[in-house]
């Protein structure tokens, strides 16, 4: 008896309305498609949590593996590896034919013209991004008649300047990332300046350790900012890459192209003298439509303005962290100058003590000479000990002052 084979289906863990609800990890019972009772749908091995958020504001949490994501989005496997844990701290924005792969800080998502798939939606770093999506992409609660009235009331200029869904998602992701980096730089500034001022006043091991910790935080934060900035700069330098981000426009152009090909196939070409004239007019219309399509394909002004605004914002954040780094470098230079001055003072003190030791060594030499058991005629002279000792002490002091004056003359000591 042959085994029954069934397709793997996605596991809907919990729909979301407003805020994420607790996820049930137990197996759910669903009716079989072939009517053979009920079948337990278990969580697929190697699956991860994804949130599907469409352009109407509806969202749900899914447990999907890589094969499901690849089939649904049509992206290559290498793009899905970029969103793995190995590249969790990298920054990449990749445009494909049917989707955009976003990997900015902790925000890892896949966007197409209709919906966005967000990896690890319950992570604390991803929740602000989801909240911003709910605020800027509201749910469609109006009825069909209300939608028709709203569409009729919209002016052509508003419809023309409205950003497509993929650009709204990209803008929200960049806004959340820039806000997070800006708040981190603000916290660093608030902690760094008092510590550096304290180090300038009191050079101690504790203050040096605190500054060393701040420098490590600054280095990691600067690398994160630089990665996002370099990725945006890479996109701004290539118009072809930016044109691939227009998923909605490409979808509309493909639909228009299919409709045009279908109409050309069904059209009947008239015979006779008018056929040449009609064919020439059709060729002119086709040439004009192709030129218009090429012009619109290369028109990336909206995306360029969007990326430039956040590029400037990242530049400001980068300049702020560079100012903190310069302040740290200036403080270190000041501390090194102070330590060098203290070192010079110690060297001068050592030089003075060496000269004093040399002068005192002469007295010790004379005392040692006269302390030997040798018959000397001076021993029998009365009242000679005091003048003799005083004379040698004066000579030693004179030698010391002479050496000190020589060191002062040659700027070896600062007195």
Automatic annotation (TrEMBL):
The keyword Membrane applies. GO terms for molecular function: magnesium ion transmembrane transporter activity. Its main location: membrane. Pfam families: MRS2-like. It comes from the Eukaryota. Keywords: Ion transport, Magnesium, Membrane, Transmembrane, Transmembrane helix, Transport. Residues 138-158 have a biased composition (Polar residues). Gene3D superfamilies: 2.40.128.330, Magnesium transport protein CorA, transmembrane region (1.20.58.340). GO terms for cellular component: membrane. Residues 1-34, 138-159 are annotated as: Disordered. The keyword Ubl conjugation does not apply. It is found in: Membrane. The chain crosses the membrane at residues 351-372, 384-407. It is a multi-pass membrane protein. InterPro entries: MRS2-like (IPR039204). Belongs to the CorA metal ion transporter (MIT) (TC 1.A.35.5) family. Magnesium transporter that may mediate the influx of magnesium. This is Magnesium transporter.
């Amino acid at each position: 008896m042959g085994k029954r084979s069934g397709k793997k289906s996605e596991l809907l863990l919990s729909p979301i309305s407003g805020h994420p609800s607790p996820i049930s990890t137990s197996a759910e019972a669903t009716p079989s498609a072939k009517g053979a009772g009920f079948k337990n749908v278990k969580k697929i091995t190697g699956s991860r949590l994804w949130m599907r958020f469409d352009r109407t504001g509806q969202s749900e949490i899914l447990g999907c593996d890589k094969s499901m994501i690849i089939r649904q989005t049509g992206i290559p496997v290498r793009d899905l590896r970029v969103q793995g844990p190995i590249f969790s701290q990298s920054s990449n924005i990749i445009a494909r034919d049917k989707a955009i792969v976003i990997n900015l800080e902790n925000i890892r998502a896949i966007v197409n013209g209709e919906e966005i798939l967000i990896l690890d939606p319950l992570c604390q770093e991803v929740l602000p991004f989801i909240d911003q999506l709910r605020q800027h992409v509201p749910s469609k609660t109006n009825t069909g008649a209300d939608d028709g009235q709203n569409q009729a009331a919209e002016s052509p200029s508003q419809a023309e300047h409205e950003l497509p869904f993929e650009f709204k998602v990209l803008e929200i992701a960049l806004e959340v990332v820039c806000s997070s980096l800006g708040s981190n730089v603000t916290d660093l500034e608030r902690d760094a300046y008092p510590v550096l001022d304290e180090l300038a006043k009191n050079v101690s091991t504790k203050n040096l350790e605190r500054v060393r910790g701040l420098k490590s935080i600054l280095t990691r934060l600067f690398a994160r900012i630089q990665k996002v900035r370099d990725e945006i700069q890479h996109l701004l330098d290539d118009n072809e890459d930016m044109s691939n981000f227009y998923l909605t426009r490409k979808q509309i152009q493909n639909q228009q192209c299919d409709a045009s090909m279908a109409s050309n196939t069904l059209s009947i070409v008239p015979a006779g003298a008018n056929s040449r004239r009609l064919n020439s007019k059709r060729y002119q219309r086709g040439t004009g439509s192709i030129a218009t399509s090429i012009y619109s394909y290369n028109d990336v002004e909206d995306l360029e303005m969007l990326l430039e605004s956040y590029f400037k914002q990242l530049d400001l954040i980068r300049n702020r962290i560079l100012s903190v780094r310069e302040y740290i470098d200036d403080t270190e230079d000041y501390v090194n100058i102070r330590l060098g001055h203290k070192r010079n003072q110690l060297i001068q003190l050592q030089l003075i003590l060496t000269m004093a030791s040399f002068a005192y060594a002469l007295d010790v030499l004379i005392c040692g000479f006269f302390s030997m058991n040798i018959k000397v005629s001076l021993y029998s002279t009365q009242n000679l000990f005091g003048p003799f000792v005083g004379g040698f002490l004066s000579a030693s002091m004179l030698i010391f002052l002479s050496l000190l004056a020589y060191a002062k003359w040659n700027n070896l000591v600062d007195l």
